Amino acid sequence: MAVVAGLLLQPSFTEVLLGAVLVLFLHYVITSTLRFRREPPGPRPLPIIGNLLQLDLNRPYHSLYELSKTYGSVFKVHFGCKKVIVLAGYKTVKEALINHATEFGDRDLSPVVRDLYNGHGIIFANGDSWKELRNFTLVNIQDIGTGKRKNAEKIMEEVEYLMEVFEKHAGEPFDPKLPLDYSVANITSSIVYGSRFDYSDPQLWEMATIHPTYAKIWYPIIQLYDAFPWLARRLKSWGAVVDFVEKKKARVRRLVRVLQDSHCAQERRGFVDSFLTRQQEESERQNSFFNEENLVTCVLNLFSASDTTSTVLQWALVIMAKYPHIQERVQEELGQVIGSQRPEAKDRKALPYTNAVIHEVQRVANIDPLSVPHAASCDVTFKGFFISKGTRVIPLLMSVLCDESQWESPHSFNPDHFLDDQGHFVRKDAFLSFSAGRRVCLAESLARTELFLIFTSLLQKFSFSPPPGVSESELDLTPVGSNMLSPTPYELCAVSRF
């Protein structure tokens, strides 16, 4: 019986062959899947804290840039338990944001973003709400159908107030940051609310600035919150961040209610009026995106764009003071082309060197080196690496703006980057200061106009130089900040040219 049982249990040749084929098939499927799902390389993370010890949280952009030299143009790091994919270099960032715009077009809604903004507005939103509000805002911050003054006129009106402030210092050293903040915030206020604020109005200070206390805790607490939400919620500093954002929202609500009380659908004073009119039109629509929370957050989004414009202008003035030969060449071109006439947006094409200088300031200032994080909208294989849906993706704009394959002298201030041999302005594809693709800066067109008109007006009227006893070489261009890079605080002299 034992012999018979053994014969019955012994597999036949056919069964062995089928088993071998099955094993080989499973091996092929598994290895193929693993190859398909091959994740990007990156430093080995530690439990719980991930790669935080390998990142300088005061300069995370620099740490990621250095890691790209080791791990390539697509790599991963872990912020705590959160896996993040980093894209580095012009070709890779362009391919992701433009050629794969849909796959990398979502915004990463981190825990801190969800808790603070709950998917409202434009910058930190996805889906139909984001699409509809973005399109509406793009149309309604332009000059289309306003029946009022053009945005360029509002900018030039504010420039007059700004120059008055500069003139009051009579060539003595001063810090231009606050006047620039006020000026750009007032331009945004004119477009959003339909009116500006006096520079002595405390509302303007609250609107245009971030209190130094919040500025110091903002980025570190956000990083901590995203890595360890359960821990960060217990910290007093997180409570301060929440309080700061709620105060910003409350201030917008107060200003909106003033406009609501005098709102007339036939009169469009600014963006808020357009939104209120649309809100009335959709009052019967279920789940309309035109509600108060979206209005408040959209307004905050627009003012955040004014912060970046002001920061670029701060960089522009200190760079002009540091490189007086470049400043003189700009002023010479302005004198030859427009003389004493007030600059206009249409003059840009006739001022190639000045235009090149403005672009080079943006490139070197590199004020948003990490960009606002994206997220994969679906499972995607990119450059041979698998990236799963919902993964945070950082397009490292710093690596684009100093890509050695795209810029002749990437770490130096050189306006020739944007000029051809005949001195004509050249648009460079690698100039991604406003990002690219579906998430390109909402206010790019407005920001370009502001930068051009404010910069040319100031250089036409003033010459900027270091304070007495300070040489040009002593002006420090080391950036400060963890996410938005500002120049090291400085003073300069604005000497009237006539």
UniProtKB/TrEMBL annotation:
Membrane spanning stretches: 12-30
UniProt entry keywords in alphabetical sequence: Endoplasmic reticulum, Heme, Iron, Membrane, Metal-binding, Microsome, Monooxygenase, Oxidoreductase, Transmembrane, Transmembrane helix
Cofactor(s) this protein cannot do without: heme
Pfam families per the UniProt record, alphabetical: p450 (PF00067)
UniProt xrefs under PANTHER family: CYTOCHROME P450 508A4-RELATED, CYTOCHROME P450, FAMILY 2, SUBFAMILY AC, POLYPEPTIDE 1
GO cellular component: endoplasmic reticulum membrane
Example of a GO MF term: oxidoreductase activity, acting on paired donors, with incorporation or reduction of molecular oxygen, reduced flavin or flavoprotein as one donor, and incorporation of one atom of oxygen
Family: Belongs to the cytochrome P450 family.
The organism's place on the tree of life at top rank: Eukaryota
Name of the protein in question: Cytochrome P450 2K1-like
UniProt: heme binding residues: C441
Subcellular location: Endoplasmic reticulum membrane; Microsome membrane
GO biological process, one term: aflatoxin metabolic process
